[in-house]
Amino acid sequence: MNEMLQCSINNRISFYHVNTRSLNSNFDKLQISLNSIHIPFTAIGVTETWFRDDDTLYSLYDLQGYKTEYSSRVGRGGGVALYINESYDYFVRPDLTIFLEGFLESLFIELVTSHRTSVLVGVIYCPTGINSDVIEKLTPVFESSEASRKGCVLMGDFNCNLMSTNGGDVNMFMNLVHSNAFEILHTLPTRITGNSATLLDIMLTNINQPCTPGILVDDISDHFPVFTVFETSCQRKTRNTVTYCRKYTRRNISYFQDLISNENWQHVYLENHTDDAFDKFLSTFLQHFDNCFPKSVNRNNNVNNSSGQIWMSTGIANSCKTKHKLYKKYVRKRTNENFIAYKAFRNRLTSVIRIAKKLYYNEMFDNCENDIKKTWSSINSIVYGKSKDKPIEENSHNGTTIRDSLVIGNVFNDFFTSVGTRIQSMFLWSLLPPLVIISTLQILTLCSLFCNHQP
């Protein structure tokens, strides 16, 4: 499957959705799953994040190489999120977003796929399933002329078995879909238990282009992830992803030490000017350094680098593959023996991962002992990850919203260049002559000394 996707993914838009049933609990599983298929999806939709609207640690759940948008409940459960590949520009569409807690929860963006075209992308979660009220709320999205003109991709958990055509609400939903030229891309079960198989998680689109939909058998939660790769070409922002490294082996270090020790530094000592002597020394030193430690393209595809899970070892990665095989075996043949084998291995692996994470972070903070700066740097790297510069797209000034980047820059410049004068004007001292200020301060000082004098 990986080979098929990787051949078709180049310059194509692709989407992935999964119901995580708590992103906090299953974020590691999501990262491992995405890392195992090596597909840079254009957008990843997540339902049932179980985040609260007042959570402040969203950055703990950022995916490497993606920007994140969340829409969360005030209370427990529910919630949706979108991870958007950093290679694409986008903006949030609050006019299309519907968030009625516990009833219909969604998040929409407009994804820029080329210089003149864009696609509407939405993630939807229906906690109560599909009913007439939900259909009424979704109708404007399906019937939107903008969705028809630009193209639209919807993904989510609709909490209704779309393989069953007995319910009247399901038939109403299918009529809404088909009457607006949308197509449901997945027709096989996405949630399988010991005694049921239902289609709850789907993708829908009105893009009239060939695509490759699929379902991934994975145990991130009790819902299978779904994906779709479109044949539609897109214009991605070019990024230089080539990195270089030097190999500091014992042999190379020993060779470098020999060259430095045996070098005739007479040409440095003969220089009369310090700057010229240093230039010659540095030139000789760097020449030996480059010879002993040449730059080479970094071809390391270690899972730690690609997934951001720095505690991940090769053994744990292999165990994750074994667990995945046991789970697929259980899904194909749902016997009690297969389930027990999968569950036992899964529980052991979960314990190993917890120990590996604990040991890694213990060692990290042991190395920071007695160094408060390094300690806080480690804490910030865990909580906030790598710093991300987010450009200011708009600013409100004197009741007016400004979107011109040049005008925004001038507003900030005017504010900071005048801040000293404004602070000074807040004090009465600024209205008095300097000699009066000095005399007043002297009087206040004398009064203070007199009051504090002990006879």
From TrEMBL:
<protein>
    <recommendedName>
        <fullName>Endonuclease/exonuclease/phosphatase domain-containing protein</fullName>
    </recommendedName>
</protein>
<keyword id="KW-1133">Transmembrane helix</keyword>
<dbReference type="InterPro" id="IPR036691">
    <property type="entry name" value="Endo/exonu/phosph_ase_sf"/>
</dbReference>
<feature type="domain" description="Endonuclease/exonuclease/phosphatase">
    <location>
        <begin position="44"/>
        <end position="223"/>
    </location>
</feature>
<keyword id="KW-0812">Transmembrane</keyword>
<dbReference type="InterPro" id="IPR005135">
    <property type="entry name" value="Endo/exonuclease/phosphatase"/>
</dbReference>
<keyword id="KW-0472">Membrane</keyword>
<feature type="transmembrane region" description="Helical">
    <location>
        <begin position="426"/>
        <end position="451"/>
    </location>
</feature>
<dbReference type="GO" id="GO:0003824">
    <property type="term" value="F:catalytic activity"/>
</dbReference>
<dbReference type="Pfam" id="PF03372">
    <property type="entry name" value="Exo_endo_phos"/>
</dbReference>
